[in-house]
């Protein structure tokens, strides 16, 4: 039986408003990041620390300076963050971390699903426009993608209704943690995502597995 994992989000840096939360491992399901963040709860209160509840191999992460920790919208999410909008953008960006107990699908299947959530104005397919790379973070293989364009993901899985958000950007990753693959997906207006991109990269670089 697959052990339950907890994702620990410890406060990072000197930002006193960014506080930590814990969340249980999710069941198989959608990793959709599109639901309105108004339905979530950002936390500024110190959480209960439960390191003893962490399963060996569970991921440990640290939200970055300026991020808001939110209560995950559904059981498929083990962590969720809101990254505030910048400039003239009308929406914040959202970063979701998901864990599917070994049922998240292959790398190729996830890459295709992510690319199918965007359209390109220049006629290219999103798979052609997508940038990808691979690196090792604290002993874990991390496959990363980046893609911009018009965001056309379904508003909810199977609904048949789609967003049409021009000028959006996605940063996503598959982290091969000892407990199983974890999936990261950051989406939002392009300027906002690009503003937070260095912070996101630092977040990925700091990921580690619970001993």
Describe the protein:
The chain has 211 residues and is mainly β. The chain has helices spanning 107-115, 126-129, 190-205, and strands spanning 6-9, 21-24, 42-43, 59-61, 68-70, 77-83, 93-99, 118-119, 131-137, 140-151, 165-177, 180-189, 208-209. Strands 3, 5, 6, 7, 8, 9, 10, 11 and 12 form a 9-stranded antiparallel beta sheet that branches. Strand 9 and strand 10 (140-151) form a beta hairpin. The protein is globular.
Key phrases:
9-stranded antiparallel beta sheet; 13 strands; mainly beta; 14% helix; 211 residues; disordered N terminus
Give a concise summary.
With 211 residues, the chain is mostly beta strands. The chain has helices spanning 107-115, 126-129, 190-205, and strands spanning 6-9, 21-24, 42-43, 59-61, 68-70, 77-83, 93-99, 118-119, 131-137, 140-151, 165-177, 180-189, 208-209. Strand 5 (68-70) and strand 6 (77-83) form a beta hairpin.
